[in-house]
Amino acid sequence: MKKIAKLLFSRIFWVAIAILVEIIWVIIGVLWLRGISPYVNLAMGVITLLMVLWIVNKKINPSYKLAWTILILAIPIFGMVIYFLFGKSRVAKQMEIKFEQVSLSANKRMPESEEVRKKLDEEDIIISNQSKYIRDYAMFPVYSNTSSKYFPSGEMMFENIMEDIKKAEHYIFLEYFIIAKGVMWDTLLDVLEEKAALGVDVRLIYDDMGCITTLPRHFYKELQKKGIKCACFNPFRPVANIILNNRDHRKIIVIDGYIGYTGGVNIADEYINRIERFGYWKDTGVRCQGDAVLSFTTMFLQMWEVITGIHEHIQNFLPGEHSEEIMDHDGFVQPYSDTPLDHETVGENVYLNIINNAKRYVYIFTPYLIIDNEMMTALCLASKRGVDIRIVTPAIPDKKTVFLLTQSYYEELILSGVRVYEYTPGFIHAKCTVCDDELATVGTINMDYRSLYLHFECGTWLYKTSSVMEVKRDALDTIEHSKPVPLSFCQNRNLVVRALQSIMRLLAPML
Q: Is residue 109 part of a domain?
């Protein structure tokens, strides 16, 4: 009874009810119109055909086109209603325009150092071209005056975060997909409250859908009373232009402009293994100190302006404003973000560039492996040309249906020589790629459709930094604690399971 009562009084229950009522209301309205006149049926057929043709001709991933086309043709009324609610939205267009305006304004004030670019060109023109792609399409430059530190676990990362936050004197910016009350949040909140009381500018952005089961509806008001500036990204409103798919999945901390963090770690106790949900929770992150942190500051302030409408001058938040420390040259660091509003899949293309240009090896951590044809082709072709491709996914899933879908991609990869492992101690939530002892990326971007196409994401591209080898060492250690997936596992599965996986693969872009 307690579980039922908890469910009935939860936000997620009422959100689900609101969405269901809206879908039923629209379907009943359409069916009523069809009953009034036989011409409505003809009109519906024409609308269905036009919608399918419109989707087919859109500049979106072919897998999305196929999934939506099948759904709309198979169940026309239901498919069209679902598409209008979840596939396209007027609010998304407004946000797209606003985000583009804010981004262009901010990124114009982030010129790249010609000297740094020249050094990277001299190091390796192929690597430099990968960096240029990030600069030109994510609009974030590469830096050299930056140190980086890799964390192989959430608990190690959080310990460092707390040390740095306690030293903050001017401002602390936090942007998170999930915040859940518990030891981690309480520990952090105590220090944030204390810093805010001392006059430190403390700001927090959280995603409403990401926190829908963990925080009360007006959580931001609680923080504002404590002196913490707080903004909620994409608050849920049950109206006919919902955006449930476009979520702020980024995890960013900026401290006084010269220290920045990102990675897979959200603010909830399972991420630092204070509670156990799916065995040991394996996560990773990276700390940057120096010039490159300006990119994280810019990402945060861009999102802050989009949500609140408050414009800030980036000159007031430059890394050198509050730290005169000169960093030793530790390779090249390039933080970047990806947005679903710019029609450029930066996150996926960063991965593809690494895989396509790899010479010896690529090791990958991802909690979800739900990939399109381009990514599958790149992984298989790299393996066939002799590159050692290894992918680590969880052995204990957080979502069983998504895990079943992830496993459906194993067979084709293994047949091409890719080595797939499942992390046996528990759930791996890390999003890392390391290549050839030279290049790595650490961030929030999963290898699934949501991260690659729908979410706001971020990462850190690292070349010839000491942290690259830290990622490699962690990858090899993690593989040691993982079980290799044999081809027989894929080929000997129950026919019912294989049939279900086939259906799920067809609808993967919408899951």
A: yes
Q: Which residues 6+ apart lie within 8 Å of 228 measured at CB? A: 192, 193, 196, 202, 203, 204
Kindly give the parts of the chain with pLDDT less than 70. 1-41, 77, 84-93, 104-109, 237-244, 322-328, 510-511
Q: Which amino acid is at 161?
A: I
Per-residue confidence (pLDDT) for residue 70, from 0 to 100 = 76
CATH number of the domain residue 124 falls in: 3.30.870.10
Mind listing the pLDDT tens digit for each residue in 294-341?
999 999 999 999 999 888 888 888 887 766 665 667 899 999 999 988
Give residue 481's domain range.
Answer: 346-510
Q: Which of 400, 393, 399 is nearest to 424 (CA)?
A: 393
pTM comes to 0.89
List the structure tokens of 181. Answer: 């009350």
Closest of 395, 445, 401, 402 to residue 282, by C-alpha: 395
pLDDT, residue 326, reads: 59
Beta strands in 351-423 (DSSP E): 361-365, 388-394, 419-423
Which secondary-structure segment (H or E) carries 404? helix 400-407
Chain Cα centroid distance, residue 243: 16
CA–CA gap between residue 393 and residue 293 (Å, rounded): 30
Q: 111 and 185 share a domain?
A: yes
Query: Do 373 and 488 share a domain, yes or no?
Result: yes
Residue 239, amino acid: V
Q: Which residues contact 438 (CB under 8 A, 6 or more apart)?
A: 124, 127, 463, 464, 468
Residue 338 lies in a domain: no
- Which pair of structure tokens corresponds to residue 399? 């979502």
Looking at the fold, whether 395 and 352 belong to one and the same domain comes out as: yes
Query: Could you tell me if residue 339 is inside a domain?
Result: no
Tell the residue number behind the tokens 């024409």, with chain if given: 46
Residue 50 has what pLDDT? 80
pLDDT 10s digits, 238-291:
554 455 678 899 999 999 999 999 999 999 999 999 999 999 999 999 999 999
Residues 378 and 230 in one domain: no
Q: Do 286 and 159 belong to one domain? A: yes
The Cα 380–Cα 376 span in angstroms is 6
Largest CA distance in the chain: 76
Q: What is the 3-state secondary structure (H, E, C) of 66-80?
A: HHHHHHHHHCHHHHH
- Report yes or no on 375 lying in a domain: yes
**Packing angle between helix 495-506 and helix 62-74, nearest 10 degrees?**
100
Distance CA 127, CA 461 (A): 11
pLDDT for res 358: 98
**Nearest alpha-carbon partner for 263 in 21, 27, 451, 443:** 443
Q: What is the pLDDT of residue 199?
A: 95
Encoded amino acid at 177, one letter = F
CB atoms within 10 A of CB 140: 24
> Does residue 465 share a domain with residue 375?
yes
Structure tokens at 97: 């325009």
